[in-house]
Write a structure and sequence with these properties.
Elements (H helix, E strand, L loop, with lengths): L1 E5 L8 H9 L3 E5 L15 E4 L15 H13 L4 E4 L1 H9 L4 E2 L5 E9 L1 H4 L10 E8 L2 E2 L6 E5 L7 E4 L3 E4 L7 H10 L1 H7 L3 H28 L6
Parallel strand pairs: 1-2, 1-3, 3-4, 4-11
Antiparallel strand pairs: 5-8, 6-7, 6-9, 9-10, 10-11
Amino acid sequence: MRAAIVENTRVTHHGLVGVALHERGALIDQHRPWAGQPLPDAPEADALVVFGGEQAATDDHSHPYLPDLARLMAAYTRADKPVLGICLGAQLLARAYGAENRLGVAPEFGWVDVSLTEAGRSDPVLAVLPERFAIFQWHSDTFTLPPGATHLAQSATAAHQAFRIGRATYGTQFHFEANRAVVADWLVRFPDLIERMSPGWALRHPGLAETDGALADAHGLTLARAWVDLIQAG
């Protein structure tokens, strides 16, 4: 099994998605287009993962590879190869399928409650989660639901938290890859950004990590494993 992973920023944690892939012995092709590395022209691996980043999904002026990445996600989907877009990755996936990217209108940070839709409760991947669960969020942007996509999860602030296109292409606004170790590292690396997103959150972090964070770790790994199960090695 080979999985292509696209990193969109200098600090990218594969987190629980990486754990699930390595449990299955996956070979990883890493792509860093933000650093000038070219993206593949066509689907070469058995699956594609696109992680988050600080840029907006429409920042073509500063990140000119974004349209190519959106097209690559669509190409994997057409080839019936699993795609996973997380945060920015979900926003790019939505863009690829004709949705509207809405910037700065839905800020969420920390472990936030997300609820499954009726479709989510019967989805092959999302159904492994409780109907309501806390999961980590760090974003300000959101998007409309792409035409033809299946709406899987929602929160009070961002209605489109997860969606599926076709058999195995998933976008999640929430960072289910971010276990407590990842979150703790973000807090060390980006204290000023986090303080602006949620004043005082660093002081609340230890208690939240013991409660919501512990549950989110379990939910995130279960979800990652369920998505990896969709991959058929070519």
